[in-house]
Amino acid sequence: MKTPNPRDLFYCSHLDRCVYQRYAFLLNEKYNVFAQNNHINSVAIAYRDNLGKTNIDFAKEAFRKISSLKNAFIFVSDFEHFFDNINHEYLKKKLCELLTEQKLPEDYYAVYKNITKFAFWEWEDIIKCSYEDEFNTTSKNKIKSIVNKRDKILTNLQFKSNTKYIKKNHTNIGIPQGSPISAVLSNIYMIDFDKLMSHYVKSKNGTYMRYSDDLIIILPLTQKEDITNYKKEIFDNISTMGNYITLSQEKTHVYLFENNSTRNEQDSVPTEIDYLGFLFDGNKIKIRPRSLGKYYYRMQRKAKTLRERDWTSYNGKFTFKETLYNNYGRSDKRNFISYLDKANKIINLSEDPEAQSLLNNVNHKIQIAIKKKRKKRKN
Question: Per mean pLDDT, which range of 94-103, 208-217, 304-313 is the poorest?
Fold first, then answer.
């Protein structure tokens, strides 16, 4: 299994977040109307506030559509470094189109300029400046825990004396992934592509969905020649966007669905379609193993850390074992187990033994992690 490429995530200052949230709301309102009027409301499915669905629902819809066809052609891909490569001028053009303006109003232009010519600090530089002399002698995890609890990470003096660490985006591409407004801007950026691809797919009685930079196209397959034609037509449509988007070759796959089974188009080997965190083999649906692996790793690491500190936190306050159950078991908190319960209810994971094992024995697995003895090092 290949390690996924890491993505840079950015966190806003409090003031910027408030402004971004306000304009994200205004743009979302306009985008929802535009999407409805231009027949792409069911296409752009990520970051929407009017659809009332999650990635679980959308994965279920995609797999249901595949199953409803006798034979199907499935194209799955994503865009290479999507947020990093958003072209500023093209984004501005699409914003003007959405707002029905010749040029951006002053307030929208100020927001646009701020999000495209953004300045940022690397997290390590922030904690280095915040913790100063103790940075090289103190555990970075401990520093992060302490810094995250502060009302203000850097004092005014620390900020002014360390401006050399501030980095700026001087290019004409890229917006920060993680800001409250980046999500709706990404949907606005893809307006033309979504309209074009939606029109093409509907003409073939198929389905097209795009979840941020992940896309899936499902088309009915009636004859062998359809495969070559579909691939050519899809890539022809994508090429109309020029350099504004680039497909990831590594993550572009073509599958065929026949006899209730999915297989790779190139080598005809039976395989599972990986979409929105779930795997589908034409019959059974499972949660992506990497998601389960990440849960076990984090739960066991947290149990080990607390156990080795005799269940006390960095600041010396007593930490109950119930904290571990609240974060990694069934509780009132939203966590991976609550997500898995929801997925099991919506999408039916009854034929996923790994997911069922975790759902049925989550408390027992946490108990094992708590009682696990530390291995002695060999001399």
Answer: 304-313
Give the whole-angstrom CA distance, residue 306 versus residue 283: 42
Rounded CA separation 239/62 (Å):
25
Q: Which residues contact 364 (CB under 8 A, 6 or more apart)?
A: none
Q: Which amino acid is at 338?
A: S
Residues 120 and 178 sit within 8 Å (Cβ to Cβ): no
With tokens 């679980």, the residue in question is 56
Of residues 278, 305, 304, the one with CA closest to residue 289: 278
Please give the radius of gyration of the chain, using alpha carbons only, rounded to the nearest integer: 24
In terms of DSSP H, where are the helices of the chain? 14-37, 55-68, 88-99, 106-116, 123-131, 140-148, 156-160, 182-189, 191-203, 225-239, 289-308, 322-328, 336-347, 353-371
Closest alpha carbon to 87 in 226, 2, 206, 188? 188
Q: Write the CB contacts of 251 (distance below 8 Å, at least 6 apart in sequence).
A: 76, 77, 78
pLDDT digits (tens, 9 = 90+) for 104-157: 999 999 999 999 999 888 887 887 787 765 556 566 666 766 676 777 778 888
312 touches 145 (CB < 8 A): no
The residue assigned the tokens 């027992």 is 364
Read off the pTM: 0.86
Q: How many CB atoms lie within 10 A of CB 131?
A: 19
Q: Using one digit for the tens of pLDDT, what is the confidence trace for 32-43?
A: 999 999 999 999
Closest CA to 278 of 76, 72, 41, 69: 76
Tens digit of pLDDT for each residue in 276-305?
A: 999 999 999 999 999 999 999 999 988 887
Cα separation of 40 and 306, whole Å?
49
Nearest to 59 by CA among 286, 251, 267, 269: 286
Instruction: State the Cα–Cα distance between residues 42 and 195, nearest whole angstrom.
Output: 11
